[in-house]
Amino acid sequence: MNKKLVYTSIFCLFVVWIQSSPLFAKDLYIQPTRDQSRLKGDGTRENPWSSLQLVLKTDQAKPGDAIWLKGGFYGNLLIYKKKFDPAISIKSEKHAEVQFSSIVINKSSGIKFKGLTVSLSFDSKLRDELLRKKSAPTIIRIQGSNNISIDQFGVFTSSNFENWTKDDWANSVANGILTTGNKIDITNSVFRNVKSGINSYANNSKIENNLIEHFAGDGLRALGNNSLYQGNTIQYCYQVDKNHADGIQSWSVGEDRKPGTGTVSGSIIRANKILNTGSASHPFKCNLQGIGMFDGMFNNWIIENNLILVNHWHGITVLGATNVKILNNTVVQIERNQIGPPRITIGNHKKKIKKSYNNIIANNLLICPNRCPPKNRSIGAFHANNLYISSLNESFVNYSKFNFHLRRSSPAVDGGYTLISPKTDMDGQTRFIGKGVDVGAYESW
Q: Distance between CA atoms of 342 and 382, rounded to whole angstroms?
């Protein structure tokens, strides 16, 4: 073997490793300009590049690099087949207002975004073009990708929607975000003035601590396997068409790509707030369903420590369930003489093709001021220590101000089944305090 050739090959591999090593990662800077047709600058803080799109397209960013975005409008970002290991970060400089009209990521991996604002309203031409289509457009699309994170985003169709008519809500609103793939996290972000807020098909993902408000579809669609949907607040729903809006909805998809023909497994819905509340300034208020999982099968799911305030029968409904645990949720009918009262129900598959079995419904607190439903309407579920109360005053510290922590005098205190309760409550407070675990989402202390 030619030794010179061997040494040359080893040297080339070493150079490639050096170039991709995180030890040599750089801080890169971008300041957008009107002319996005060619790349200007050298990426330093003093002479930043002029286009994020061209930096990524021309492979200026290397694995591990941090791209800092200075304030300005960056247009519509398209990322296709870009893979970074270790991941690059793309984030706004401190106090910078970084704006995009939309973001599309396809077949890519290893990108962590932070601190961006994305709205169709920043580009009226793109907005009008997308809204002319039959179905509502989506502001951020991440498809066929993995190891992507979205953190501290602001996402909205329009910032001025207070005077929108029902027709505006039906025809001029976009979906917030759609994800497919693996490990696509969405955290600490705000989705406002959208049709559906978050549509997460991605597996092994984390959807956490987001605010979804002023929406006209579903708040959060939890469609991935082995994913965590935690600490999100969903509020202010608008009824503008025949859609039955859910705070959180899920369904399975089989090999035929039809709903209700597959199995979704191993996910957790925890410590979310679903609030069908509003005021005189909130027109077209919908009768929001709480957690609706109507097209199973659903296997090994946990639904725990959620606070659900709705005027509908569907407080928590799972149709087609195996090994599902519904534990320590607080479900409240907030207005008398409305649809309801809300229930917690497990039933067989909606099309009666599969039965539900080996499920648990325990330690849930249901407030039904009108009339309480039968305590056991479920199929294939073990029930334990669920509590139905007709008086809001009886249980909560200050329900009129949406403080649903328990009074010490509440019958829910120490009334739960300790052996199967979550280890913490909605606030992260350790369970249990006192003689036993409390019923509902909050542990009194």
A: 19
Measure the CA dihedral 160/310/240/350, to 10°.
140
How crowded is residue 111: how many other Cβ atoms within 10 Å of its Cβ?
Answer: 23
Q: Which residue has the tokens 């941090």?
A: 66
- Distance, C-alpha 423 to centroid of its chain: 23
Helix (H) or strand (E) holding 6: helix 3-20
Q: What percent of the chain has pLDDT over 70?
A: 92
Residue 209 has φ and ψ, to the nearest 5°, of: 60, 40
Q: Are the C-beta atoms of residues 213 and 253 closer than 8 Å to each other?
A: no
Work out the average pLDDT over 250-276.
Answer: 94
Residue predicted with more confidence, 339 or 443: 443
Give CA–CA dist 86/79, Å, rounded: 17
| Closest among 352, 353, 351, 347 to 324, alpha carbons compared | 347
For residues 177 and 201, give the distance between their C-alpha atoms in angstroms, rounded to a whole number.
11
CA distances from 130 to 46, 75, 119, 120, 268 (A): 37, 15, 12, 9, 34
Q: Do 169 and 191 contact (CB within 8 A), yes or no? A: no
**Strand ranges inside 378-421, DSSP E:** 381-384, 387-389, 396-398, 403-406
Three-state DSSP at 176 gives: strand
Category of 363 on φ-ψ map: left (φ > 0), alpha (ψ -120 to 50) or beta: left
What is the DSSP track for 199-262? EE--BS-EEES-EEEEESS-SEEE--TT-EEES-EEEEEB--SS---EEEEEE-B-TT--BTSS
In whole angstroms, what is the distance from residue 415 CA to residue 417 CA? 7
pLDDT value for 375: 62
The single residue listed with the structure tokens 């819905």 is 269
- 323: exposed, middle or buried (C-beta count within 10 Å: 0-12, 13-18, 19+)? middle
Averaged pLDDT for residues 365-375? 76
161-211 confidence digits (pLDDT tens) = 988 999 999 889 999 999 999 999 999 999 999 999 999 999 999 999 999
* Adjacent-strand bridge partners of 149: 112, 185
Q: What is the pLDDT of residues 77-96, one digit of tens each?
A: 999 999 999 999 999 999 99
Mean pLDDT value across the chain: 90
Residue 295's CB: how many other CB atoms inside 10 A? Answer: 22
Nearest to 149 by CA among 196, 190, 91, 199: 91
How many CB atoms lie under 10 A from the CB of residue 358? 12
